[in-house]
Amino acid sequence: MNTIHIRHLDKQDAQVISQAFQEQGWYKPSELYERYWEEQQQGARITLIAELDGQFAGYVNVIWTSDYPSFQEQGIPEISDFNVLMKFRRRGIGSRLMDHAETVAMERSNTAGLGVGIYADYGNAQVLYALRGYVPDGRGVYKSDHYLQPGEETVIDDDVVLYLTKKLGQAQNIKL
């Protein structure tokens, strides 16, 4: 039937999520999701879980206080660590997760931000974000703790990020 359900992370999800990513060859330890749950309990983030017909399919976070200085200064919530299992892609799960994440972000801001890697592995995400209306924040490429400068050499890896923002519309009536 392909029913997509979005809900908040539960403490017992950690092992299920870790195992699902391990099955596709990605190492994502259960301790990561245990930390996400603890931070959710403390009010620092919301982790949204997507299930397809009752089976874990993906997740995304909304972090209320971003580590990225520009978002932090402006009070922009960051949508972060957005992942859909490969076997469940192209079924609308990512769009539903992003819809919910944007609705959550609207609780505190009329703008949402996110960072995206700049090499080909992030190509699908880059396209999705552009189609959803995200645009570069105009500050350039950021790596770990600084903006890259003309002539600066660096290794292109997961820490090299372009940050994007989107003005959010009216709140949608999405129930979790």
UniProtKB/TrEMBL annotation:
Cross-referenced Pfam families, in alphabetical order? Acetyltransf_1 (PF00583)
Has UniProt tagged this entry with the keyword DNA repair? no
Q: Boundaries of each N-acetyltransferase domain copy?
A: 4-169
Q: Which organism is it from?
A: Paenibacillus sp. AN1007
Q: InterPro entries per the record?
A: Acyl_CoA_acyltransferase (IPR016181), Bact_Acetyltransf (IPR050832), GNAT_dom (IPR000182)
Highest rank taxon of the organism: Bacteria
Instruction: From the Swiss-Prot or TrEMBL record, give the protein name.
Output: GNAT family N-acetyltransferase
Keyword Signal applies: no
Q: What Gene Ontology molecular function terms does this protein carry?
A: acyltransferase activity, transferring groups other than amino-acyl groups
Q: What is the lineage of its organism?
A: Bacteria, Bacillati, Bacillota, Bacilli, Bacillales
Q: What are the entry keywords?
A: Acyltransferase, Transferase
